[in-house]
Each structure stands twice: as C-alpha cells, then as structure tokens.
C-alpha cells in the first residue's frame, strides 16, 4: 500500500513540475514533449491505480465487515457537512456582499460601517455551521 501511495505522489509531483517547467519555457517543442510526458505518466499510473483497486478493495471490505457498526460515522459525517456547507454558503454570501459593499463605499465612503454589518452577517453563517457541528460532536 505504501509503495502505491509513494508512486502516485511521485507521479503527480513529476507531472506538476514538468508542466510548470514547460509552461515557463513556452516553445512548441517543449509543449509537445510535455504532452508526451504526461501521456506516458498517465499510461503508467492508470494500471497501477487499477491494480491497487483490485488488490485492496477485498481487504477494505473485510476490514469494514469486522468493524463494529455504530452511528458515530453518520454523526461525524453530519458534523463535517454542516461545517463545510455553512462555510461554502458563507463564502458565496461574502463574495456577493463584499463586491456590492466595495462598489457602494467607492460611491459614498460614509456607508462603510453599514457595509461591514452586512459582511458580518454573512460571516455569521459559517459560525452557525461551526456551532451546529460542535453540538453534533458533543452528542457522540
């Protein structure tokens, strides 16, 4: 298992480094070589990935069958989802409110305080999600 993970990490790292190097160089010959190198890496990595799935799935299934079943997993999932989705919603809200606030403040600098209140309300969404996840984890 460790060898597969190390090989996968080295493959991804080599692809990223090669991509940045050839983007930095910027000639057509380098782009063709980068494409060929990435195809070679994927050609080598895909069979290793399939082999890992075929050989490790039965072990994971037997380990999952031997583990005691409890509701803790769903509780952890609920806590993670509440935090993640609340943070995602807060990010969308802050992006919309922040851009509108910057436009409004550029027209009238006196409304900076009002715009900060709206930004704080948008950030409150993430805090509420975090509080809910703490409450869920407290019950586990």
From TrEMBL:
Example GO molecular function: proton transmembrane transporter activity
Keyword field contains Methyltransferase: no
InterPro entries according to UniProt: ATP_synth_F0_csu, ATPase_proteolipid_c-like_dom, F/V-ATP_Csub_sf
UniProt cross-references to Pfam families, sorted A to Z: ATP-synt_C (PF00137)
One GO cellular component term noted in the UniProt record for this chain: proton-transporting two-sector ATPase complex, proton-transporting domain
Membrane topology recorded in Swiss-Prot or TrEMBL: Multi-pass membrane protein
Localization, UniProt: Membrane
Keyword tRNA-binding: no
Keywords attached to this entry: Membrane, Transmembrane, Transmembrane helix
Family: Belongs to the ATPase C chain family.
Name the record gives this protein: ATP synthase F(0) sector subunit c
Naturally occurring in which organism (per UniProt): Peptoniphilus gorbachii
């Amino acid at each position: 298992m460790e060898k597969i993970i190390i090989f996968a990490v080295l493959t991804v790292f080599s692809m990223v480094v090669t991509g940045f190097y050839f983007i930095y160089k910027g000639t057509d010959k380098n782009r063709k070589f980068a494409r060929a190198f990435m195809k070679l890496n994927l050609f080598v990595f895909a069979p290793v990935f399939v082999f890992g799935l075929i050989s490790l799935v039965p072990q994971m299934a037997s380990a999952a069958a031997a583990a005691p079943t409890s509701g803790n997993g769903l509780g952890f999932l609920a806590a993670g989802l509440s935090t993640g989705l609340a943070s995602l919603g807060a990010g969308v809200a802050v992006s919309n409110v922040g851009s509108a606030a910057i436009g409004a403040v550029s027209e009238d600098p006196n409304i900076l305080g009002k715009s900060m209140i709206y930004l704080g309300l948008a950030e409150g969404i993430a805090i509420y999600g975090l509080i809910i996840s703490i409450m869920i984890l407290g019950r586990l």
